[in-house]
Amino acid sequence: MRSSSLRRRIILAFLLFGGVLGVSLVGAAYHLSTQFKEKIIAQQLFAELDGVVLYYSIYRRLPASKSSESRIYLSAGKSTFGLPAYLDSLAPGFHNIPFDGQRHHVVVKDMEGARFYLVHPDSALQLNQSYLLFLILTLIVSLLAALGIGTLVSYRVTRPLTRLARDVANAGGENSKVRLAEGLHNDEIGALAAALDLHLERTKALIAREREFNDDASHELRTPLAVLKGTVELLFTDPDLPDSARKRLQRIDHALREISDVIAGLLLLSRPADDAESTTLYPVAPVLQEVVENNRYLISGKLIELSMELGGATQVPVTPCTLRIVLGNLIRNAFNYTTRGKILLKLGKDSLTIEDTGIGIQQSDLGRLFERYYRGAEAAKAAAGMGLGLSLVQRVCERYGWRIEITSHAGAGTQVRLLFR
Fold it and tell me: What is the number of domains present in the chain?
């Protein structure tokens, strides 16, 4: 998503508005000036010619031209006094005539038996530089005004938003006492801050209840588990215990350990990710072998060839109990959903690959494997479960930055790759 400052967008909006307004005003002024230029020129020339006529009526001679580019002529009866031929046929009034490769404005007026002519070249009456400069300055001033107003408005608008964003970032702790709406005006931003305050209070209450539940559940579950483990250990010391009963006790002991690992893992996942994690590195291979042995009963009696390649001395900063959760779920899936063929466990430098020749996974189910409580139709038929195992595995992987890749085809087996980096 592209990032763009709200303050910058406000300033640009005002600049755009000022530019459009300034260009519109300047354009309108220029258009009006050109539209009425001829009328204005005619009025100016007639006013100047009136002055010539008045001067002539008093002094009986023509005055000097006000401009070096303008010319004054007089004709009285048959006397033309040097009147150019191209003016001789003009009637009284305003005229635009071309002459000598240039357009001229001419005004003609009769007075006291004489005809007066005032001639101006068109170039002499164009918009002068000062007028054009005025138009340009008007446009610049409008842009500067828009920039100033936009900057001021953007600062006034974004200042409470910036403060609100900072306070929200600092209000994440459970024990934070920051009140976002404090000091803000009772406007839309203040209403937003009040809504965020309410949401934060609800979130804190929810986190507190969840943490209390986790602590209570951990305490209440660990106590009977400790009793059961103590009882199993005591039964193991009985020399008269039959071998069949000893094997069942071993299964119970493994199940108790798995339950303890799951409780520890769930408590770990319930804590924020930025809480202190273990920095001690633990080898993967011993945990992998232990998990395989604890779940070997799932493939007993099946025509399955199980092979392990422990080529990599991989170590991870994860406690063995958490690692057993991940490996246990993946290996149990391979054991449960394979009825015959081969299962290969290959531990590389930074990865673990589990390949089986089991029932496989439908392509339509691959995209939903990590959804909580989701189980494909074939998986539901092959083994019991609740659809939580892979969801739990994914949460652990996300916490530690691992990746899990699953490729499968229905009836052709499954390959799972767990990447520790």
Answer: 2
